[in-house]
């Protein structure tokens, strides 16, 4: 009989936690440790389960996640943090396996792994191959725009948007979105980009856009294709390729409930203008799917087990 591992989700009532539970409920090698809902905020009850867990997954607000790490460390469990509290912290391994050669092994060996943010996953996947190769200067001024389904905002936003009438709403207009530090650190940027996210009137799915002037779209596409060659969950589409069923539109929901990310390069050779786009499910490769992928790597299991719904 194959070994069973125990996982405790601290904060399992939130959107990310619920989607991780849905995936792990059918996982052949992981047993979920449940907590009495009435005791989910009790320190002793949580730490008791942490002591039984091979890995504790934190699906908590940042401040609560920082506090929970102390409990988990004392309990002796490994930690996968789905909050944004530790994504650029010393001693933590960034949970984007496709980012660097050897990143999977670092995740496998790590005591503390930080799960990437949804917008950040798309932006970093586009930027890292270009900055690492020198095709994009670290200090180049950039604008990053993005739109996500309302499920990315948590239970309060979901309830608000489901009541209707919201349409499209831009936010992050204070130039201080919490994903910026993460995007800069792992995307290889030294100059702070302008990042402007938005919420659309649909449940889930995400598009992240990076426009580039004075660019060679074919060369950008070649670099992205080479970088992600052989990767299971990040695939690069052909230059200027749209889905046949939705052209001339690019729809954000095409990858919903999967752990897949698609990268696009739209370009005009004469104008030397390009638009880089990442498409992903904000609850899949942008959150819960990525978390299960990281759990599998941490525990030495097949990476694709139960990462999609």
Question: How would you portray this structure in words?
Answer:
There is one protein chain. This protein is an alpha/beta fold and 309 residues long. It is 32% helix and 21% strand. It contains nine helices and 13 strands. The strands form two sheets. It has a seven-stranded mixed β-sheet with strand order 8-9-7-10-13-12-11. α1 (15-24) crosses α9 and α5 crosses α8. 45% of the residues are buried.
How is the topology of this model organized?
Layout: E1 5-10, H1 15-24, E2 30-33, H2 43-52, E3 55-58, H3 62-75, E4 78-81, E5 93-94, H4 103-109, E6 112-114, H5 118-133, E7 143-149, H6 154-162, E8 169-170, H7 180-187, E9 194-200, E10 206-213, H8 217-227, E11 234-236, E12 261-268, E13 273-280, H9 284-298
Parallel strand pairs: 1-2, 1-3, 3-4, 4-6, 5-6, 7-9, 11-12
Antiparallel strand pairs: 7-10, 8-9, 10-13, 12-13
What's a concise summary of this model?
The protein is an alpha/beta fold. The protein has helices spanning 15-24, 43-52, 62-75, 103-109, 118-133, 154-162, 180-187, 217-227, 284-298; strands at residues 5-10, 30-33, 55-58, 78-81, 93-94, 112-114, 143-149, 169-170, 194-200, 206-213, 234-236, 261-268, 273-280. α4 (103-109) links the parallel β5 (93-94) and β6 (112-114).
């Amino acid at each position: 009989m194959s070994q069973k591992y125990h996982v405790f989700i601290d904060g399992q009532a939130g959107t990310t936690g619920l989607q991780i539970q849905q995936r792990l409920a059918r996982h052949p090698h992981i047993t979920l440790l449940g907590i009495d809902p009435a005791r989910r905020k009790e320190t002793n009850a949580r730490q008791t389960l942490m002591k039984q867990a091979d890995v504790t997954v934190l699906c908590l607000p940042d401040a609560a996640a920082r506090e929970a790490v102390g409990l988990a460390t004392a309990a002796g469990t490994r930690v996968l943090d789905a909050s944004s509290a530790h994504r650029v912290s010393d001693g933590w391994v960034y949970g984007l396996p496709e980012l660097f050669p050897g990143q999977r092994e670092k995740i496998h060996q790590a005591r503390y792994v930080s799960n990437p943010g949804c917008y950040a996953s798309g932006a970093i996947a586009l930027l890292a191959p270009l900055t690492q190769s020198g095709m994009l200067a670290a200090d180049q001024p950039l604008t990053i725009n993005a739109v996500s389904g309302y499920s990315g905002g948590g239970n309060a936003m979901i309830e608000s948007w489901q009541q209707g009438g919201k349409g499209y709403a831009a936010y992050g207009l204070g130039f201080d979105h919490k994903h910026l530090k993460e995007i800069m650190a792992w995307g290889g940027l030294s100059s702070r980009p302008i990042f402007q996210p938005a919420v659309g009137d649909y449940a889930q799915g995400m598009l992240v856009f990076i426009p580039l002037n004075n660019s060679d779209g074919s060369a950008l596409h070649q670099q992205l294709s080479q970088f992600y060659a052989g990767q299971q969950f990040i695939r690069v589409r052909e230059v200027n390729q749209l889905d046949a069923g939705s052209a001339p539109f690019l729809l954000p929901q095409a990858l919903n409930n999967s752990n897949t990310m698609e990268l696009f390069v739209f370009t005009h050779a004469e104008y030397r203008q390009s638009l880089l786009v990442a498409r992903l499910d904000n609850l899949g490769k942008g959150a819960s799917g990525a978390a299960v992928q990281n759990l599998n790597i941490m525990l030495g299991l097949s990476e694709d087990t139960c990462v999609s719904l």
